[in-house]
Design a protein that fits this description.
Radius of gyration: 26 Å
Order of helices and strands: HHHHHHHHHHHHHHHHHHHHHHHHHHH
Structural class: mainly alpha
Number of strands: 0
Largest sheet: none
Strand content: under 5%
Mean pLDDT: 89
Low-confidence stretches: 1-29
Number of helices: 27
Length: 502
């Protein structure tokens, strides 16, 4: 160690009582150890060959029942969801914890398992799980669990299927529950989040005489019109809401403000801000954040900065979303360096970065053709052990592969797999094409094999490209290996459009 380094180390310890320093060190280490344990378990589950071998014995070997705390189980399932893990593996892990956890299953763990299954369209397995919990752990059947199931059926199935699912919930699953406004709001939200406003209106007209609508019901419908991008429909329904005798609240005004701000009409948003204050409807940080976004869309950086500074004068504290809105406004105005400085300020003020923070900055750097800046931010993200969400992973993979940085694309893949993630199929498509176009066929094969072994199918086009190149390279055995994995998965996975039909 150099003299200067020794001096620095000594100064760091000088004047700090040993016990206090040790306490801080242990407090910092504890979350890291927990994160490492979550990553370890997630990786065990994702790396397990599917569907060749049963998962339960592996779980018993590597995850002893006494270690299954409530928080650990919930966090692992959260990671499995974020990691795009195979739903049947998540289901096996949940069932293992139901049988062996000393604390018993929680509603959060159940909801996350249900979400993973429904997202992969394992609807029959999801219904089976709900039926099991109805018998063994009825307290786990929450409104959120119902909402997860109904919303995914509305997304992937028909209007009629969704209504039938709602009836099944009432008659067969939540048998001891008297359905009312809360349940009514769930089916309305399912259609509204999918922007299926014709269907939402139909459900409202059909059921509102049975279930008494409340202000939340009307806000859900208002939000649906806002998500469909029609400001006129938002205002028409708002006036209908008032005519029906419902009193607008902060959520109502936030939705209306957001409708205008998404169109860049920040002036109309500010008018509504004055209106809500005039009726003693206090704005929140979310209200001001929405207006900052609107100012950014309108390319009015001065107004965005004024609104951001106004958060402090209103005796509020800017949260991650507020900083993200200001960063987005700076990016839209091409002030990329100022946006990076604001991200650094977040760190100084201990305001956490989230996926939107990274995604917005990556987008700004890419648009400014700052390849070095993208690489620098990417390495910083990895050093912080931050795992980006699918949208950002795909954006980064595409950028790396198009801009001659396929090694960084491969690094991103390995980083995600090392964290126990099973990256999204579109990220694999981009990486396989990028590797194959540079003659790196064996690396493309390994990545594809990793994906298939983890229980996720790949899409047709890259599979065919890779198969042809493997044959040309005299690697018919490797192509047969991929083909065998595909056939095994097809026997247990629900096929979706574009998947390998081998």
């Amino acid at each position: 160690m150099s003299c200067s380094m020794k001096l620095l180390t000594q100064n760091q310890f000088a004047g700090v009582p040993h016990r206090r320093f040790l306490s801080r060190l242990l407090c910092a280490a504890a979350p890291l150890e927990r994160d490492n344990e979550i990553d370890r378990i997630t990786k065990i589950i994702n790396d397990h060959p599917f569907p060749d071998c049963p998962l339960q014995p592996v779980l018993q070997k590597h995850i002893p029942p006494p270690t299954l705390s409530t928080g650990l189980v919930e966090d692992v399932l959260g990671h499995l969801f974020g990691a795009h893990s195979n739903g049947l593996k998540a289901l096996e892990f949940f069932r293992y914890t139901v049988r062996h956890s000393p604390c018993g299953p929680t509603s959060v763990a159940f909801e996350r398992t249900l979400h993973i299954l429904a997202r992969m369209r394992y609807f029959e397995k999801a219904w089976e799980l709900m039926d099991e919990m109805r018998v063994t752990h009825p307290s786990l059947l929450t409104l959120k669990a119902m909402s997860i199931m109904i919303s995914k059926i509305a997304k992937f199935k028909s209007y009629e299927d969704t209504l039938l699912a709602f009836e099944r919930m009432e008659n067969d699953v939540f048998v001891d529950r008297q359905f009312g406004t809360d349940e009514f709001n769930i089916i309305l939200r399912a259609f509204c989040t999918q922007r299926q406003m014709k269907e939402a209106r139909s459900v409202f007209n059909k059921m509102h005489s049975r279930f008494s609508p409340d202000t939340k019901t009307m806000n859900i419908l208002l939000l649906g019109f806002k998500e469909s991008g029609d400001v006129t429909s938002v205002e028409l329904f708002y006036h209908e809401m008032v005519r029906r005798g419902f009193k607008p609240n902060t959520v109502t005004y936030n939705i209306r403000i957001d409708a205008y701000c998404k169109r860049g009409c920040v002036g109309d948003g500010l008018r509504l801000l004055e209106e809500m204050e005039g009726v003693d409807c206090l704005p929140t940080v979310e209200t001001v954040t929405t207006l900052i976004h609107g100012a950014g869309v309108a390319r009015n950086l001065t107004k965005a900065k004024e609104l951001f500074d106004g958060i402090f004068t209103r005796n509020m504290q800017p949260d991650t979303a507020a900083y993200n809105a200001m960063i987005s406004a700076l990016i839209k105005a091409n002030y990329v360096k100022a946006a990076i400085a604001l991200m650094d300020e977040m760190e100084l003020k201990q305001v956490g970065h989230d996926n939107i923070t990274y995604h917005t900055l990556f987008f700004g750097l890419m648009r400014s053709k700052e390849i070095d800046g993208v690489c620098k931010l990417y390495h910083k993200m990895v050093q912080r052990n931050f795992v980006p969400k699918t949208r950002t992973v795909v954006m980064l993979m595409k950028y790396f592969c198009i801009n001659g940085q396929v090694d960084l694309g491969l690094h991103l893949w390995e980083y995600l797999v090392g964290k126990g993630h099973c990256p999204h199929g579109h990220a694999l498509d981009l990486l396989v094409i990028g590797l194959c176009s540079r003659g790196r066929v064996l690396e493309a094969f390994e990545c594809s094999k990793q994906m298939l072994e983890r229980g996720r199918l790949m899409t047709e086009a890259p599979y065919r490209m890779l198969g042809g190149l493997l044959l040309q390279a005299g690697e018919a055995d490797k192509l047969r290996k991929l083909s065998e994995l595909v056939k095994k998965l097809k026997a247990v996975l629900p096929l979706s459009k574009g998947m390998v039909m081998d």
